Amino acid sequence: MLWIGPAAFPLNNLTRVEATKLKPERGVTFVRLLKWLAFTAVVYVFFMAATENEAEVAESGQPMFVLFLVGLIGYFVKVLVEPAKPILAVETAGGSLAVVTLPSVEQLRTIAGQIVHAINHPEAEFTAYVHELNNYNGPVFHQNGAQNTGIKL
Predict the structure, then answer these.
(1) What pTM value is reported for the model?
(2) Would you list the DSSP string of 95-142?
(3) Transmembrane stretches, by residue range (predicted)?
């Protein structure tokens, strides 16, 4: 049995064990930024059209929109420059997927090799404890097909 958090996976049911780096979808993130900028521009134009007095706009609306734009761009720049995260993906014949993260992909490749060795040699035993001191690299999550079945932080 392979235990990942509270989930147990029979070794003969595993179809894929892969240590790789999960790259952020930068193109999707950039398009999402452009959509939010367009939405903000439309709201700003409607706001400007609804207010007749220029001084009233400067007092109430412009600082709010500038602050929103700075926050929006800052958030998306942070997401765009985020590095790839090392993951160990374990998939079963039933379509379930468990993912574990660690700071180093080499550590995950070592664990993947131990899992593959245990599949090929059922009498073999190994133990690998993955301790996350911080949650920088994300949680362990369980996926069943396209449905997320739980998150362990």
Answers:
(1) 0.59
(2) SEEEEEE-S-HHHHHHHHHHHHHHHH-TT---------SS-TT--EEE
(3) 33-51, 63-81
